[in-house]
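Researcher: If only I could read C-alpha coordinates as easily as an amino acid sequence. Walk me, if you will, through where the backbone shape changes along the chain. I have put the entry right below:
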Amino acid sequence: MKLIGSYTSPYVRKISVILLEKGLTFEFVNESPWPDESHVPQYNPLGKVPALVDDSGEAWYDSPIIAAWLDAQDATPKLLPEDALQAIKVRQLEALADGVCDSALIIVREQLRPAEQQSETELLRQREKIRRGLDALEQEAAKGQWLNGEQITLADIATACTIGYLNFRHVVPNWCVDRPSLVKLVEKMFQRESFARTVPPAA
Protein backbone atom coordinates (compact mmCIF):
# COMPACT_ATOMS: atom_id res chain seq x y z
CA MET A 1 0.00 0.00 0.00
CA LYS A 2 1.00 3.58 -0.61
CA LEU A 3 -0.12 6.53 1.53
CA ILE A 4 0.04 9.91 -0.18
CA GLY A 5 0.07 12.97 2.04
CA SER A 6 2.06 15.48 4.02
CA TYR A 7 3.69 14.97 7.40
CA THR A 8 1.90 17.97 8.90
CA SER A 9 -1.67 17.02 7.90
CA PRO A 10 -3.73 15.77 10.86
CA TYR A 11 -5.92 13.75 8.49
CA VAL A 12 -2.87 12.03 7.02
CA ARG A 13 -1.61 11.40 10.54
CA LYS A 14 -4.92 9.72 11.38
CA ILE A 15 -4.45 7.23 8.57
CA SER A 16 -0.77 6.70 9.40
CA VAL A 17 -1.70 5.90 12.99
CA ILE A 18 -4.37 3.42 11.87
CA LEU A 19 -1.91 1.67 9.56
CA LEU A 20 0.69 1.46 12.33
CA GLU A 21 -1.85 0.26 14.93
CA LYS A 22 -2.91 -2.52 12.56
CA GLY A 23 0.67 -3.43 11.70
CA LEU A 24 0.12 -2.89 7.97
CA THR A 25 3.12 -2.28 5.74
CA PHE A 26 2.89 0.85 3.63
CA GLU A 27 5.02 3.31 1.71
CA PHE A 28 4.61 6.96 2.67
CA VAL A 29 4.80 9.42 -0.23
CA ASN A 30 5.34 12.96 1.06
CA GLU A 31 3.30 15.08 -1.33
CA SER A 32 1.76 18.49 -0.69
CA PRO A 33 -1.55 19.18 -2.44
CA TRP A 34 -0.87 22.91 -2.77
CA PRO A 35 1.76 23.35 -5.55
CA ASP A 36 0.50 23.53 -9.13
CA GLU A 37 2.76 20.59 -10.00
CA SER A 38 1.36 18.40 -7.18
CA HIS A 39 0.61 14.78 -8.11
CA VAL A 40 -2.16 14.50 -5.51
CA PRO A 41 -4.99 15.06 -8.08
CA GLN A 42 -3.84 11.86 -9.79
CA TYR A 43 -5.05 9.96 -6.74
CA ASN A 44 -7.89 12.21 -5.55
CA PRO A 45 -9.71 14.39 -8.13
CA LEU A 46 -10.38 16.92 -5.36
CA GLY A 47 -6.65 17.37 -4.85
CA LYS A 48 -6.81 16.63 -1.12
CA VAL A 49 -4.76 14.39 1.15
CA PRO A 50 -4.67 11.71 2.34
CA ALA A 51 -5.07 9.26 -0.50
CA LEU A 52 -4.33 5.56 -0.16
CA VAL A 53 -3.40 3.31 -3.06
CA ASP A 54 -4.12 -0.33 -2.26
CA ASP A 55 -2.19 -3.35 -3.52
CA SER A 56 -4.43 -3.62 -6.57
CA GLY A 57 -3.67 -0.03 -7.57
CA GLU A 58 -7.07 1.40 -6.60
CA ALA A 59 -6.99 4.81 -4.88
CA TRP A 60 -9.12 5.56 -1.82
CA TYR A 61 -9.93 9.01 -0.41
CA ASP A 62 -10.55 10.94 1.86
CA SER A 63 -9.62 10.11 5.46
CA PRO A 64 -13.02 8.85 6.76
CA ILE A 65 -13.39 6.58 3.72
CA ILE A 66 -9.81 5.33 4.01
CA ALA A 67 -10.32 4.66 7.73
CA ALA A 68 -13.50 2.69 7.04
CA TRP A 69 -11.81 0.75 4.23
CA LEU A 70 -8.87 -0.15 6.43
CA ASP A 71 -11.15 -1.35 9.21
CA ALA A 72 -12.99 -3.56 6.71
CA GLN A 73 -9.75 -5.47 6.07
CA ASP A 74 -8.68 -8.49 8.11
CA ALA A 75 -6.06 -6.63 10.17
CA THR A 76 -6.64 -5.96 13.85
CA PRO A 77 -7.40 -4.22 16.12
CA LYS A 78 -10.84 -3.37 14.84
CA LEU A 79 -11.49 0.33 15.41
CA LEU A 80 -15.23 0.25 14.71
CA PRO A 81 -17.77 -1.88 16.62
CA GLU A 82 -19.51 -4.69 14.76
CA ASP A 83 -22.96 -3.30 15.54
CA ALA A 84 -23.89 -1.00 12.65
CA LEU A 85 -25.60 1.67 14.75
CA GLN A 86 -22.75 1.78 17.25
CA ALA A 87 -20.30 2.02 14.36
CA ILE A 88 -22.21 5.05 13.08
CA LYS A 89 -21.87 6.61 16.55
CA VAL A 90 -18.10 6.16 16.42
CA ARG A 91 -18.05 7.57 12.88
CA GLN A 92 -20.01 10.60 14.11
CA LEU A 93 -17.40 11.21 16.80
CA GLU A 94 -14.73 10.94 14.10
CA ALA A 95 -16.67 13.51 12.04
CA LEU A 96 -16.89 15.79 15.08
CA ALA A 97 -13.15 15.60 15.68
CA ASP A 98 -12.47 16.17 11.98
CA GLY A 99 -14.82 19.16 12.04
CA VAL A 100 -12.86 20.73 14.88
CA CYS A 101 -9.75 20.17 12.81
CA ASP A 102 -11.40 21.77 9.76
CA SER A 103 -12.01 24.93 11.80
CA ALA A 104 -8.43 24.92 13.08
CA LEU A 105 -7.15 24.71 9.49
CA ILE A 106 -9.31 27.68 8.48
CA ILE A 107 -7.86 29.69 11.37
CA VAL A 108 -4.30 28.77 10.39
CA ARG A 109 -4.88 29.77 6.76
CA GLU A 110 -6.66 32.99 7.73
CA GLN A 111 -3.75 33.97 9.96
CA LEU A 112 -1.34 33.50 7.06
CA ARG A 113 -3.03 36.40 5.30
CA PRO A 114 -1.77 39.96 5.87
CA ALA A 115 -3.15 41.27 9.16
CA GLU A 116 -5.26 43.94 7.47
CA GLN A 117 -6.94 41.28 5.31
CA GLN A 118 -7.80 38.89 8.10
CA SER A 119 -11.46 38.56 9.09
CA GLU A 120 -11.87 38.73 12.85
CA THR A 121 -15.50 37.66 12.38
CA GLU A 122 -14.38 34.48 10.62
CA LEU A 123 -11.71 33.77 13.23
CA LEU A 124 -14.24 34.15 16.05
CA ARG A 125 -16.74 31.96 14.20
CA GLN A 126 -14.22 29.15 13.80
CA ARG A 127 -13.01 29.43 17.40
CA GLU A 128 -16.60 29.09 18.56
CA LYS A 129 -16.99 25.93 16.46
CA ILE A 130 -13.86 24.53 18.06
CA ARG A 131 -15.11 25.37 21.53
CA ARG A 132 -18.46 23.68 20.97
CA GLY A 133 -16.82 20.69 19.31
CA LEU A 134 -14.32 20.16 22.09
CA ASP A 135 -17.04 20.50 24.72
CA ALA A 136 -19.06 17.78 22.97
CA LEU A 137 -15.99 15.55 22.71
CA GLU A 138 -15.27 16.13 26.41
CA GLN A 139 -18.78 14.93 27.28
CA GLU A 140 -18.29 11.78 25.22
CA ALA A 141 -14.81 11.18 26.63
CA ALA A 142 -16.22 11.46 30.15
CA LYS A 143 -18.67 8.64 29.35
CA GLY A 144 -15.75 6.40 28.39
CA GLN A 145 -17.72 4.23 25.99
CA TRP A 146 -16.63 4.85 22.39
CA LEU A 147 -14.20 7.64 23.26
CA ASN A 148 -11.60 7.32 26.02
CA GLY A 149 -12.71 3.79 26.81
CA GLU A 150 -10.73 0.64 27.47
CA GLN A 151 -10.47 -0.34 23.79
CA ILE A 152 -8.98 1.99 21.19
CA THR A 153 -11.44 3.21 18.56
CA LEU A 154 -11.42 5.35 15.44
CA ALA A 155 -12.91 8.15 17.55
CA ASP A 156 -9.92 8.02 19.90
CA ILE A 157 -7.46 8.29 17.03
CA ALA A 158 -9.32 11.09 15.25
CA THR A 159 -9.71 13.11 18.44
CA ALA A 160 -6.07 12.72 19.47
CA CYS A 161 -4.89 13.71 15.97
CA THR A 162 -7.09 16.81 16.11
CA ILE A 163 -5.78 17.89 19.49
CA GLY A 164 -2.26 17.13 18.32
CA TYR A 165 -2.87 19.58 15.46
CA LEU A 166 -4.21 22.23 17.85
CA ASN A 167 -0.99 21.87 19.81
CA PHE A 168 1.20 21.82 16.70
CA ARG A 169 -0.28 25.01 15.23
CA HIS A 170 -0.87 26.68 18.61
CA VAL A 171 -4.57 27.04 17.89
CA VAL A 172 -6.65 27.45 21.06
CA PRO A 173 -3.72 26.90 23.46
CA ASN A 174 -6.10 26.72 26.44
CA TRP A 175 -8.15 23.84 24.99
CA CYS A 176 -7.32 21.65 28.01
CA VAL A 177 -8.96 23.99 30.57
CA ASP A 178 -12.00 22.28 32.13
CA ARG A 179 -11.66 19.28 29.82
CA PRO A 180 -10.01 16.63 32.04
CA SER A 181 -11.35 13.65 30.11
CA LEU A 182 -9.84 14.88 26.85
CA VAL A 183 -6.55 15.52 28.65
CA LYS A 184 -6.61 11.94 29.94
CA LEU A 185 -7.38 10.65 26.45
CA VAL A 186 -4.57 12.46 24.67
CA GLU A 187 -2.02 11.68 27.37
CA LYS A 188 -2.88 8.00 26.90
CA MET A 189 -2.88 8.17 23.10
CA PHE A 190 0.32 10.18 22.76
CA GLN A 191 2.18 7.45 24.65
CA ARG A 192 1.37 4.91 21.94
CA GLU A 193 4.13 4.08 19.48
CA SER A 194 1.87 4.94 16.54
CA PHE A 195 1.56 8.52 17.75
CA ALA A 196 5.21 8.84 18.74
CA ARG A 197 6.22 7.81 15.19
CA THR A 198 3.87 10.31 13.53
CA VAL A 199 4.70 13.52 15.38
CA PRO A 200 4.79 16.26 12.73
CA PRO A 201 8.13 17.96 12.09
CA ALA A 202 8.76 21.28 13.79
CA ALA A 203 7.05 24.09 11.94
User: Anything to note?
Assistant: Helices lie at 10-21, 63-71, 84-111, 120-143, 154-168, 180-190, 193-196. Strands lie at 2-5, 27-30, 51-53, 59-60. The chain has a mean pLDDT of 97.
